[in-house]
Specification:
Alpha-Beta Plaits, globular, 16 strands, alpha/beta, 2 domains, binds ribulose-5-phosphate, about 260 residues, 7-stranded mixed sheet, Rossmann fold
Length: about 260
């Protein structure tokens, strides 16, 4: 079912479909999800100007933005950029591509942050962190004057938590099972699971900050998001959750029929 886009500023219907990120030789080839991610990422990088401090997001969509920033730097079209990575994974990519980096200690104000999301609702609230980097992402993106979210259209939802996928919560490892139980009891119809890592024989997934992630699944939805946020953060042992409420300033949505810019 199509998700309504009430804050749509404008839509470039099919405008991006012949731009370089797309398979250019054959317009008849349907765009893959990866193509759409790349298109959204390239559109977001158009907001980046020389001299800016840029928050570099994490995930398969954000990595296209990081690669595009590096490309423009190498072409001399961007200069004096400083990137603030939101994960070790992004730091590694940016170092490999030669993007100059810093952190919030030295650059507390970020001009533009660009990142993907797992869910985007009609008010531009987000669920992030299914890649496990929600804490650093929230720290960097909360410091940004402009936070541009890049998604393909599959990420649009009517209500956060309604997709059946997890709301990730970063918790300290100490007695994490007990923290998970407390989180589960906060909401009717909620299931909590400590995220495990298949590559580590089902051991808990460990974040860049040496913490664990508890995944929350909501049978009946999250309800009031601000209230849910407060309740989750009130549980001892919780560090941060993956709801990014009121933080996104623009969401760039790439779909099969064009790119849509959603603005606050
Ligand atoms: O929040 C994130 C990582 O912590 C990612 O931005 C989010 O999971 C989206 O990832 P992808 O672009 O790979 O779908």
């Amino acid at each position: 079912m199509a998700i309504p886009l009430p804050r749509c500023l404008y839509t470039e219907k099919g405008a991006s479909m012949s731009s370089p990120p797309c398979p250019s030789s054959s317009p008849a080839i349907p765009l893959s999800q990866e193509d759409l991610k790349k298109i959204a990422a390239h559109k977001a990088v158009d907001y980046v100007k020389s001299g800016m401090v840029i928050g570099l997001g994490t995930g398969s969509t954000a990595q296209h933005a990081v690669a595009r920033i590096a490309e423009l730097l190498n072409q001399g079209e961007l200069t004096n950029i400083i990137g603030i990575p939101t994960s070790k994974q992004t730091l590694d990519q940016a170092v490999a591509l030669g993007i100059p980096l810093s952190d919030l200690d030295d650059h507390p104000t970020v001009d533009v942050a660009i990142d993907g999301a797992d869910e985007v609702d009609t008010e531009l609230n987000l669920i992030k962190g299914r890649g496990g980097s929600l804490l650093r992402e929230k720290m960097v993106e909360a410091s940004a004057k402009k936070f541009i979210v890049i998604v393909d259209e599959s990420k649009l939802v009517r209500g956060l938590g309604s997709s059946g996928h997890a709301l990730p919560v970063e918790v300290v490892p100490f007695c994490a099972k007990n923290t998970a139980r407390k989180l589960e009891r906060l909401f009717d119809g909620c299931k909590a699971e400590i995220r495990v890592c298949r590559q580590r024989n089902g051991e808990p997934f460990v974040t860049d900050n040496a913490n664990y992630i508890v995944n929350l699944f909501f049978e009946k939805g999250i309800g009031n998001l601000e209230a849910a946020s407060e309740r989750i953060l009130g549980v001892e042992g919780v560090i941060e959750h993956g709801m990014f409420l009121g933080m996104a300033t623009t969401v760039v949505v790439a779909g099969k029929s064009g790119v849509t810019f959603l603005d606050k």
